[in-house]
Amino acid sequence: MSSFSPASVLAFAGPESARSVTVKAAPTAAAVGRLRIGIVCNPKSHLNHGAEYEAGVPGVDSVLLAAPGTRAALADTLAEFAERKIDLLVIDGGDGTVRDVLTCAAHLWKGKWPDIAVIPSGKTNALAIDLGIPSGWTLADALAAVTRGRRVERRPVEIARDDGSRPLRGFLFGAGAFVKATELAQHTHRAGAFNGVAVGLALGWALIQTMFGGATSSWRVGTPLGLKLPGGSVDPRPRYLLLASALRQLPLGLKPFGQPRDGMKLLVVDAPPKRLMLTVPALLAGSEADWMRRAGYHHIDTASFEVSLDDGFILDGEHFAGGKLAVRQGPVLSFIAP
């Protein structure tokens, strides 16, 4: 996780499937040079590229560069970008950086957002993997992709509370065992494992804890979740796991939501989880067989749901307090793709 913290100073420099991919008339190099570009560079990201931008971006006339160290500074940065009517928003960071940018900017571009280019420099870069962005992707690569006119549309998950606070926006929401597994992933980051390696290690350790823990193990008894789907009533049963995302591809090729498709997808696993040795390989390979549903593994497509939980939840790697939450699809965003 590499979200914004009070560690750095704000600085400016210089004035899915075929259905989700659109190809516009490709801009010429001269047209790209006239784009107004705003770059948010997380100073705490694992592979930060900020120093590379300080001399300017060759071939581009108007660039705003910011390295905000707090979420408040990030909000000010994005307000400046919106006022200057940028054409391209570049996010240099990991999944946590993307989450913070989309959350802080939610009220700024209520109509059409600028195109977004992600430079994957965080410890986890699930969104970049889903977009087909390779490791080592640079701003120069993104600008070259602009000239090819390829865009991929994705909708973030939006989490709203009933207290009127600003909704969160991210791409992978999880509760139950996912909270514990994410904490394990943070330990693997400190040990030097990132991206798919960290996911694999955390997943393996979580399965060991679940399979070999006793009947009263916190991994097996589940988390009380009040889950309510549209048109239904609240189901208060304890759940082992709840995941929600609109991503199509996840790290390591894992397919817990079933076969890749558009829209928000849920995976809900009842507690205690049954037949793990048999279900886990099938689940991660994308199976949605009826026998899995009967065993308590539920795949659900929905544009929204409500959930009440006390133990908190994870959104793109960061732990947030629980409560009564309304979870829905966010706006359609257009990302530059290779």
From TrEMBL:
Domain DAGKc: from-to ranges: 85-167
Domain of life (superkingdom): Bacteria
InterPro entries (alphabetical): ATP-NAD_kinase_N, Diacylglycerol_kinase_cat_dom, NAD/diacylglycerol_kinase_sf
Protein name: DAGKc domain-containing protein
